[in-house]
Amino acid sequence: MSGETNLNTLLKNMTPVLNAGDYVYCTVFSINSIDPADILGLFKETEGFTIILKKDLADQLNLEYSYIAAWITLNIHSSLEATGLTAAFATILAQKGISCNVVAAYYHDHIFVAKKDADRAMEALKKLSL
C-alpha cells in the first residue's frame, strides 16, 4: 500500500493524535550504548547521529538536549510522494507562532512541537482538517 496522495483527502482525514510523554533531540557519536527499541528517530549527519528519545531515557543516559517536545502523529497513511501536506500544516502552525519539526515516516507524518505549544498545535491541526 503506497498511501494517500490527494491533498484534500489528506487534510480532511489526517486525524492528529498527541502522543503521551516528553521527547528530546540529542546528538551522539555512537548509538551502541542505546537500545534501538528505545530510539524513536535516528538520522546520521556529518556531526554525529541525531536521535529522538523520550526525555526520561535521555536523562537516564545523561544526554544533553535543549528542546523538550511534544509528539503529534497524523493518523493517515500519507504517501511519501504526496505534495502539499507538510506545507499546509507547517503554514498553519507558523501562523500561530508554533515551530514544528517534521519526520515523514513510511506510514505517517510526525510533528514535534515545543511542549508548551502542544495544545495550541493540536487545536490548529484539528481546525485545518475541517
**Which sequence of strands runs across the widest sheet?**
2-3-1-4-6-5
How many beta-strand elements? 6
How is the biggest beta sheet arranged?
Answer: 6 strands, antiparallel
Label the CATH architecture. 2-Layer Sandwich
The helix-strand sequence is: HEEEHEHEEH
Question: What is the CATH fold-level name?
Answer: VC0802-like
General description of the model:
The protein has 130 residues and is an alpha+beta fold. It has helices at 7-13, 55-60, 85-95, 118-128; strands spanning 16-28, 41-45, 48-54, 68-74, 101-104, 109-114. Strands 2-3-1-4-6-5 form a six-stranded antiparallel beta sheet. The mean pLDDT is 95.
Task: Give the structure's gist in a few sentences.
It is built from 4 helices and 6 strands. The protein has 130 residues and is α+β, with helices and mostly antiparallel strands. α3 packs across α4 (118-128).
Topology:
Layout: H1 7-13, E1 16-28, E2 41-45, E3 48-54, H2 55-60, E4 68-74, H3 85-95, E5 101-104, E6 109-114, H4 118-128
Antiparallel strand pairs: 1-3, 1-4, 2-3, 4-6, 5-6
Helix pairs in contact: 3-4
Primary descriptors:
27% helix; 4 helices; VC0802-like; 6-stranded antiparallel β-sheet; 130 residues
